[in-house]
Design a protein that fits this description.
The protein contains 13 helices and 20 strands. With 429 residues, it is an alpha/beta fold. The strands form 5 sheets. Strands 7-6-15-16-18-14-19 form a 7-stranded mixed β-sheet, with helices on both faces. It has a 5-stranded parallel β-sheet with strand order 9-2-1-13-20, covered by helices on one side. It has a 3-stranded antiparallel β-sheet with strand order 8-5-17, with no helix packed on it. The structure holds flavin-adenine dinucleotide (FAD).
Length: 429
C-alpha cells in the first residue's frame, strides 16, 4: 500500500482531526477504519426523512468548535435559548432562567432563587480550574446552601457531562462545561454526520488516504519503536508513527506487551459513561412550551433539537417533523426495558399525547458517550505519547487533559500530532 509517515487507527472525529493536522504538516497519512463508513459515534442515520444521531448531540463552544472553525468548517445549525424546565415529582416546572420564570417558578424559595441568580452571574466569569481537585458532589455540598438548588445543579452538571457519578467527576471541568452551555450550544443541521462529512472531505483534499472496512489487529513494535501495523485481513504496513484513536481497552489489546506500558494504567483507570437514548420524530408538540427539561428527581434529560433558535431552528427533518431527544443517564447496572419505559413515561409527562403525533422513533439502550473522563480516581492523564514505545500516540474522548466529550477527542488528536511532529523534529536534529 505504499509508504506512510503516519498511520491512524480509527476514523471517528479524533482520527479524522489527527489526519487533517498531520497532512497539513506535510506527512503522508493513512487512516484505517473498521466500519464501512467514517465518523464513529458521530454518524447520523436518516430514517423516514428524519436525521438521527446516535443519541442527541450538541456542539459546545469549546476546543472542538474552535478547531473546526479554524479548519473552515461551516457548522451550520441553530443555537437554541437556555430557557428550561425541571421535572420534579411528576410535574414540569420552570427553572428561573429568565425574568418571568424567576418570579413565577414554585420550585425554589426566594432564598433559593437569589442564590441561583448569584451563581448564574458568578459562573459566567468564574475561573473553574480552582475546583479541579474536588468532586462535583463536594463542590455542590460545600458551595450551595438551598437543598432544591443542589438538585438543580446536580441535574445541570449531569446533563453537561453525561456522568451519573458526582462523587467521581472533578468539579472544575464540569463547571467549565456548564459555563459553555450557558453561552449556548449548537444543534447541527442534518446531524453530526454533516460535520463528519466536512472533515472527511477536507482530509481527502489534503491527500489523506482513507481506508474503511479494515480492522487493525496488531501494532508491531521492537526495541521500543513502532515498526509496522498489521490488519486482520493480513495487510501489513511499515510505519514508524501510529496514532491510536480506539477506546483504551482496544488500544491495550492492539499493542503486544501493553501491560508494560502506560496503556495498562490508562485502561485500568478508565470508567466508561453510558446512556440510554430515545429519539422521537413528532408531527407537532402537544405542549409546545416544554422543549427543554432536566430531571431533578430522576436522571433524565429531554430536549427538542428542532426548537426555535438563532438564526432559525436546526434542520433535522425534510418535512418539518420535530426531533426530540431524551437520555437516561446510567450507572454500572443497566436495564434496557426499564430505561425505555422510563423515557416513554417522561414523554407522557412532558409531552402528553406524543404517541398520537409519532412519525418515527429510535431507541438505543446503551451508548458509550465517552470511554473515560476527568475523575477523582485517575492516576494520570492519558497521552499524548505512550512513553515506553517511540512513535506510538493516543487520542480520543478518553485521552482528556480536562476537556470533555468531543472536545477531548479533538484536543487529544491535536496534542498527539503536535507531540509527534516535535519529537520527530528533535530526532532529525
Ligand atoms: C449518545 C451520545 C451523545 C453524545 N452527545 C455529545 C454532545 O452532546 N456533545 C459532545 O461534544 N459529544 C457528545 N458525544 C460524544 C461524542 O460523540 C464522542 O466523544 C466522539 O464522537 C468520539 O470520537 P472519537 O473519534 O474519539 O471516537 P469514536 O467515534 O469511537 O471513533 C473511534 C473509531 O475507531 C474505530 N475502530 C475501533 N477499533 C478499530 C480497529 N481495530 N481498527 C480500525 N478502526 C477501529 C471505530 O469503529 C470508530 O469509528 C455523545 C456521544 C454519544 C454516544
Amino acid at each position: 500500500m505504499g509508504k506512510y509517515d503516519v498511520v491512524i487507527v480509527g476514523g471517528g472525529i479524533a482520527g479524522l482531526t489527527a489526519a487533517i493536522h498531520t497532512a497539513k504538516a506535510g506527512k503522508r497519512t493513512l487512516v484505517f477504519e473498521q466500519q464501512k463508513r467514517f465518523g464513529g459515534r458521530a454518524i447520523t442515520n436518516k430514517k423516514q426523512g428524519v436525521y438521527f444521531n446516535l443519541g442527541g448531540h450538541a456542539l459546545y463552544k469549546g476546543e472542538a468548535y474552535e478547531a473546526f472553525r479554524e479548519l473552515g468548517l461551516r457548522l451550520e445549525g441553530s443555537t437554541p435559548s437556555i430557557d428550561a424546565y425541571g421535572m420534579w415529582k411528576e410535574q414540569v416546572v420552570p427553572l428561573p432562567t429568565n425574568i418571568s420564570s424567576f418570579f413565577q417558578t414554585p420550585l425554589l424559595s426566594w432564598a433559593g432563587k437569589l442564590e441561583f441568580a448569584k451563581w448564574f452571574i458568578k459562573l459566567g466569569k468564574m475561573d473553574t480550574s480552582v475546583w479541579n481537585e474536588i468532586s462535583i458532589r463536594d463542590w455542590i455540598e460545600t458551595q450551595l446552601h438551598d437543598p432544591m438548588l443542589r438538585n438543580v445543579f446536580y441535574a445541570l452538571l449531569r446533563t453537561s457531562t453525561y456522568v451519573l457519578a458526582p462523587e467521581l467527576h472533578t468539579a472544575g471541568p464540569a463547571l467549565k462545561q456548564l459555563q459553555r452551555s450557558l453561552n449556548g450550544v449548537r444543534y447541527l443541521d442534518k446531524g453530526w454526520g454533516t460535520l463528519v462529512e466536512e472533515l472527511r472531505k477536507l482530509a481527502v483534499q489534503l491527500g489523506v488516504e482513507l481506508v474503511s472496512d479494515r480492522k487493525v489487529g496488531i501494532i508491531e513494535h521492537q526495541d521500543q519503536n513502532v515498526h509496522s501495523i498489521l490488519c486482520q485481513d493480513g495487510t501489513r504496513i511499515e510505519v514508524s508513527n501510529v496514532i491510536l484513536t480506539t477506546p483504551p481497552s482496544i488500544s491495550h489489546k492492539l499493542v503486544p506487551h501493553a501491560d508494560q506500558t502506560a496503556l495498562h494504567t490508562w485502561n485500568d483507570q478508565s470508567i466508561p459513561v453510558t446512556v440510554a437514548c430515545l429519539d422521537v420524530g413528532l408531527r407537532q408538540l402537544p405542549k409546545p412550551r416544554n422543549q427543554f427539561t432536566y430531571g431533578l428527581d430522576r436522571s433524565i434529560f429531554l430536549s427538542n433539537h428542532s426548537r426555535e433558535g438563532k438564526p432559525r431552528p436546526a434542520i433535522l427533518s425534510d418535512d418539518g417533523t420535530q426531533l426530540i431527544s431524551l437520555f437516561k443517564y446510567q450507572g454500572a447496572q443497566t436495564d434496557a426495558a426499564k430505561d425505555e419505559a422510563e423515557l416513554e413515561h417522561v414523554l407522557d409527562v412532558v409531552q402528553p399525547g406524543w404517541r398520537n403525533e409519532l412519525v418515527i422513533r429510535q431507541f438505543l439502550p446503551k451508548m458509550t458517550v465517552v470511554h473515560d473522563f476527568p475523575h477523582m480516581n485517575r492516576t494520570e492523564d492519558p497521552g499524548p505519547a505512550v512513553p515506553e514505545i517511540e512513535g506510538l500516540y493516543v487520542a480520543g474522548d478518553w485521552a482528556s487533559h480536562g476537556e470533555l466529550l468531543v472536545d477531548a477527542s479533538v484536543a487529544s488528536a491535536k496534542r498527539a500530532v503536535s507531540h509527534l511532529l516535535n519529537t520527530r523534529e528533535e530526532i532529525k536534529r
